[in-house]
Every structure is written in structure tokens, then in C-alpha cells.
């Protein structure tokens, strides 16, 4: 009866499209057959096992997985893992592998073996004749997992490689030639951008995309989906106005400037405008004249850097450089920078050397990068909470894989306090009390500053702890691995994407039995995160693979989450006079409401960003199709010959080599195509920055954006042909053909890649209101 009810419930969830509603019955029914093959495969030698995988590859090539093929792939993978790693995949890992092989996002709890499940799925796709990219959240995990799983792949006759920042072009080409390639999402994206600027087919490093398996799928597909990866060419040093930075540094909140409740906007008051104008030696009214628009823009950017970005929260200053902090992971966001002069403004604020400023040659969002793959699957510990986004933006469904051993972690009720200071005292007491029992403790904080403040307070009461944050993320694997030792206290920023399990008793397991007896790892959250997924990721560090453990969150009605998203706290909520603790259920409802609002805002930003970038991606795709035609055919030579037949004839005579002739024409035309695309991106940035004010005239900003962007794009191909023809017409011919440098065909001699830390689109209405509010505040 219970089984029947369970089946009916699953079917009902499927019908109404509830999150986490993928029907697993089909895959569960295949597990006995996978197990039945085990004795047969055990008798094979390593060579025979590899040969059997090769025969399956011949059978499967470019066809979809049927049940029989899924059974065979999973059985072969389980046997290969058992031999290569000494690890026999559990049924739930096999279930996860099947979910990945059928293009789902599988949710598997921390410690349940996602890495092996992902490797077996990647091998399965490769056996099917597909090139597979396993997309990770950082370079460390890409290399670690590729090297760790390589023996498994080898037994299955599958080749594996990885890409990382230090790799040469040749090393990258070699890695991408493997059946399976591991790489950080940014690194794979940067290679896409580099390939888009090559002038010879021989310089391409990536083959056509086929399958992507995304690790930490919620983080990559949702949190970083709208992050643009950028390829820039060198122009000069950033031109931040240091004089303006010094002026803004003297301004005071609520006297010279004000900020909105969300902490997203800052504006000058009348007093602030007077101080700035006087410091610049101009009249107040002149500050807002069109002639002074550049200076006013510099003031606004510097004010944003001064008022809204906080050191050790939003960024670090390390080794004389400003380094952004990834809020979702609590670590340095490698290669990320702010756009539109804000990076230079922060550098001026902190008085460090300015970084190079470049012309943007091309960019791609993470979402658009992954949309290139015909087949996408993913794995994570927290997918159900973002099932709506995964379905809406990627047409992916979530399959919830049950744990191998029931989770017995005790999730305690949140403890809520009136003020952050009262909350902090309670956290210190909680750590002291639990530490006295010998249980290991993991404390999850919101940012670097909080982690270090808490560590200092614990040190004053002789409680030693290890801190893991953006300052020492290079040692994170070693720190996390020892967080389960008896008596250990680890204070960390966000735990997402850390990639290392916390084993009770530490890496050597010496005190495991004792720690288990004491109750396992105790997790403490110092505040609720803006996303329930991040809460779940922190909790999930305890109770892995059936271990005992517990988790508790502390919160305050004056936490940033509440103040930014639900500041209107109901009246009548009373706190204990001595401790400040609140037991009224209304307080918890308010915090839960604030978290839902924060998640809703994030989803709305994602939707709005995608509405704008979807057009840009479509235009980029169309132009890349044309560019690829230019790259691979004689199209450029045909265009130039038609435009100036006599000059083209002279060039042909000089070179006396058809291949060289076509390549020279190709380089000329590709230069102009790439330059015009770069100009188009700059134009769209300008349109984007002004578009929201058009709503005041009852115009829909998105429609206006399309109206401005589409006609300009349609000019690019024709204009590129015209410019290339003009280059040929005006060029002086030599024995080597055209001196491209003298002809003005100069590509950037230095290029670099970075990610833009930017949420450019709130809702159109909200953006408009903020702009108007800012204008009114200045009057």
C-alpha cells in the first residue's frame, strides 16, 4: 500500500510539474540488471574489459541510450571504478549516472559520490561517440577530478584531459582532443572567446561542443548564469580620476550623500554637491551641465566605490591588487573585475596601481556558453530550490537521488535575536559549550570581515580556530579535510563548491569512532543566506553518508538579509531583556519572508538580464556563422576581387600563391568584422545605460533596446566588406603583398580575459524610479 501511494505521489508531482519531479522508477527498475552483470564482468581481464567497452562504443555510436545500453554502461563503469579506485559504485551513484546520461540535473547530497557518478556518465557519453566537457567551478577541481578519475576512464578506453590557465595553446588543443575534458567554466568560456578571434583554422583549439556535464550545477547554471566572460585588447592604463577619489573620500553618509535601503545606489545631497563643486573649482549648477557630464560620471562612480563597496566584504586588497570576492563561494573570484570604470575607481579608493584598461573585443555570458551544447546535464547537492530556473532557462528537470544511507543529521530550529551583537554573543557561547564536549565545529559566516572578527573574539577566550576565507583559499582542501577532527573549530565563509568532504576524525580517521560517539560535526550558521540553497549547502557539510551530526542557524531581525529585503518587521515582537533572544514565531516568518524576497529579486534580475542578452546572443550567433564562412572559404578574396579587380590582380601577381592570397584577404576582412562587432558591443552598452529612462515617455525599454540594436547589427557585414575593400584600395603593395600594419589592420598586441561582476538589470520600472529618485535628490 505504501509503495502504491509513493508511486501515485511521484506521478502526481510529474503531472503538475513540481520541482524535483523526475520519475526515477524506470531507472530504479534497471538496477538489478546492472548488479546481475557484475559476476560476469569480474571474470574479465583489464584488457577484456576495455575491449568490451570498445564493442559497446561501436554499437552505440551517435545513437540514444536504450535501457540495455544504460545497463551495460553502468555495469562497465562500476567494474572499472572498483578496479581502478577500489570503490564500488553504490546503487544511488549508478542511479545518478543514469540521470546524467538522460540529460537531467541530479541532486545528490554532500558525500554521496557525485564526482564518480559524473565520471561514469562522462565515460558513457564518450562511449556513445560524444565529446564531453565536465564543467567545474574552479581550476583546482578540474585538474583534481581529471587526474583522480583517469584510471577509470583508461579501463573503459576513454581518454581524458583538463585545461587550466597555465596551459599553452597547444596543450589546450591536446586537452580538447580527448574524449572527456575537464575545465573550469571560465576557462572553457575564455577558450571560446579566443577561438572567435582567430584568423586561421589551424589556430582553433576547441572542437564543436557536444555534451556538457556541469558540476555544482545550481551555482554555475543559476548563480553565475548572467556573469559575462570578457575578452579585451590592450589600450592603456585605466584613467580613474584620483582627484575625484580624494574628494569623495571626505564625504560623509547622510550629510554629503545618501544610499537606498538595498545598498545598490548612492547619490549626492545638496551639501555633497556643494562640497564636490567647490573642490573641483566650479559652480554647483555647472556640475550638472552637459559639458561636465564626464566629471559628474567620475564623481558618481567614485561615490559608488566609496559608499557601496566594502573592503573585506566585496573585495580584498592583496599583493597590491584589488581582488573581488565571490559572495556565493566566499573565495577570491579569480579574473573578475567591475565594469565601466568602477574597477579603476575602487583601485583609486584603495590607492593601488591601476590595472590595464582595454577595448572589449567579445564577451559571452555563462548561460549563453552552456546553451552552445546540444546536450547538458548537471549534478549538485541543492537543485530542487532552483528547479524553476533550470526548467525555465535550460529546459532541464531535476532528479532527486536518495542517499545511500539515511540522513540522521539533526537540523535544529533557528535561534533569533533582536540585534547582531546579541546574536554574536550567543554564537560564542554555542561554540564554547559544544567545544567543551570535544565535538568538531564548522562555523559558516557571511563574509571575510565577519569570519576574522569572530576568530578574534574566540581567540580572546582561548578558543583556537582555523579560518578559511578568501585570504587563504589556496589551502582550503587541507583545512576542510581536517575540520572533522575531535575538538576542531573551523570558521569559514560560504561552503559552496569547496569540493572536499569533511570526514569525521580528520583525513586519517584516527578519532572517528570517538567523534561519532560524541555526536559528529556540529554546523553553525552565523546568519541566514540570501538563498535557501546556500543554507542547505552549509547544513549538508554535516551528516555525510549516514554520519551523526547537527546544524543550527543564528539570525537577527537586524541582519542584512532582513534590512535589505523585509525591513518592515511586525510590531509586538518581544525579545528576552537579558539575552535579546526572540521566540515569537513571527520573527522566523519574517526572516523566511526576507529570504524568499531575496530569491525572487535574484530570479527577476536573471530574467531581465536574459531578455536583453538573448538578442545579443542571437546576433553573435549569426555573425559567427558568417565569420566562420570567411575563416574557412575564399569568401574574403571574392569580395575584394569584386570590389577592386585591378588592385586585386596586382596583389595576386605579387604573391603568386593562391593560399597566401586568400589568407591575406581573410585577415583584412576578419579584422574589420571583429572591429565592427567590438564597436557594436560598445554601442549596446551605451544604449543599455540610458534605456531605462525611456520608460518615462511610456516606451518599453526592452522594445527600445531591440529597436536600437537590430538596425545597427544589420549594417555590420556590409560595412565590413566596404572597409576591407577600402583597405585594399588604399594599401601600398609590396613583394609580400599588403603591409597589414601600415594599412591599419592592427590587432591588439596584448589581450586578456576576465569576468564582469555586474548585475546590470533590475526590473525596468525599478531602474527608472531609482534614476528619477536620484535626479530629485540632486535638486
Polypeptide structure, described:
It is found in: Cell membrane; Cytoplasm; Membrane. This protein is of the alpha/beta class and 779 residues long. Among the domains are: 245 residues, 3-Layer(aba) Sandwich (Rossmann fold); 114 residues, Alpha-Beta Complex (Pre-protein croslinking domain of SecA); 174 residues, Rossmann fold (3-Layer(aba) Sandwich), CATH 3.40.50.300. It is built from 32 helices and 26 strands. The strands form six sheets. Strands 16, 17, 18, 19, 20, 21, 22 and 23 form an eight-stranded mixed sheet that branches. The chain has a seven-stranded parallel sheet with strand order 3-4-2-5-14-1-15, sandwiched between helices. A four-stranded mixed sheet has the order 12-26-6-13. Helix 6 crosses helix 8 and helix 29 packs antiparallel against helix 30. The longest helix is centred in the C-terminal third of the chain and has 48 residues. The C terminus is likely disordered.
Taking all Cα atoms into account, the compactness measure Rg is 29 Å
CATH fold type of the domain at 18-231 and 370-400: Rossmann fold
Portion in helices: 40-55%
The CATH superfamily of the domain at 18-231 and 370-400 bears the name P-loop containing nucleotide triphosphate hydrolases
CATH classification, class level of the domain at 18-231 and 370-400: Alpha Beta
Counting DSSP E segments of at least 2 residues, the number of strands comes to: 26
Helix-strand makeup class: alpha/beta
What's the main sheet like?
8 strands, mixed
As residue ranges, the low-confidence spans are 10-18, 757-779
Distance between the termini: 72 Å
- Approximate shape: flat
The proportion of residues in beta strands is: 5-15%
CATH architecture of the domain at 18-231 and 370-400: 3-Layer(aba) Sandwich
Q: Let me know the average pLDDT.
A: 85
Q: Helical element count?
A: 32
